[in-house]
Write a structure and sequence with these properties.
Layout lengths: L6 E5 L6 H11 L3 E4 L1 E3 L13 E3 L2 H9 L3 E7 L2 E6 H9 L3 E5 L2 H10 L4 E6 L3 H11 L4 H15 L7 E4 L3 H16 L8 H18 L2
Parallel strand pairs: 1-7, 1-8, 2-7, 3-4, 8-9
Antiparallel strand pairs: 3-6, 5-6
Helix pairs in contact: 1-7
Length: 214
């Protein structure tokens, strides 16, 4: 049976590794696409425009909102982040599952726009490890890391609103968990494009067997 594609949203506190998970998942599957977000924050040295984010200024971001180009957007730590609709719509038309790497606020907005979206909350293995990962970035002031840790406390309260929780303690194991979630969601009856046709074909075959049976 054919399954209709759907968005899968990964949300997590900063440093939990949701972007790494999303990229690893996409890298393993040709029919899974990554939704590139837009942001007004500065580009880090290792990041590429159009791959990691679309880096835009405030004026361009506001224009995209005004022109209805954003599926969702939010202001986080003083910077704006948003999801352009176009990339998601084009990927779904190609039959791809689309992975979105966005915050808790954005996940709720995606669920409103796509009721069939799957929401996954990614947890770090421990608070100590989360703090270590933030420090390892070496691109933020200690005060900003403290803000992110405080935000993480607030975001944890939303975890129970999600469909699934994945602990990112080991990359391969966590990606495997996401793959299992996708396979389970693809098997949902409401996602099947041709379930009635498949059932009808089986009924005809079974009736044929019954007619030939002694």
């Amino acid at each position: 049976m054919r399954s209709r594609p759907f968005p899968i949203v990964l949300s997590a506190p900063s440093g939990a590794g949701k972007t790494t998970l999303a990229r690893a998942l996409v890298g393993r599957h040709d029919a899974v696409s990554f939704s590139v977000s837009a942001t007004t924050r500065a580009r880090r040295g290792y990041e590429r425009d159009g791959y990691d984010y679309f880096f835009v200024d405030d004026a361009e971001f506001e224009r995209m909102i005004a022109d209805g180009e954003m599926l969702e957007w939010a202001e986080v730590h003083g910077r704006k982040y948003g999801t352009p609709k176009r990339g998601i719509e084009e990927a779904l038309k190609r039959g791809h599952i689309v992975v979105l790497d966005i915050d808790v606020q954005g996940a709720r907005q995606v669920r409103e726009a796509f009721p069939g979206a799957v929401l996954v909350f990614v947890l770090p293995p421990s608070a100590e490890e989360l703090g270590r990962r933030l420090e390892a970035r070496a691109s933020e002031h200690p005060a900003e890391r403290r803000v992110r840790l405080n935000t993480a406390l607030a975001e944890l309260a939303a975890a129970t609103d999600f469909d699934y929780v994945v602990v990112n303690d080991d990359l391969d194991r966590a990606v495997g968990a996401l793959e299992n979630i996708i396979e389970a969601e693809k098997a949902r009856i409401e996602r099947a494009d041709d379930v009635e046709q498949t059932l009808d074909a089986l009924r005809r075959e079974l009736n044929g067997l019954l007619e030939r049976s002694p």
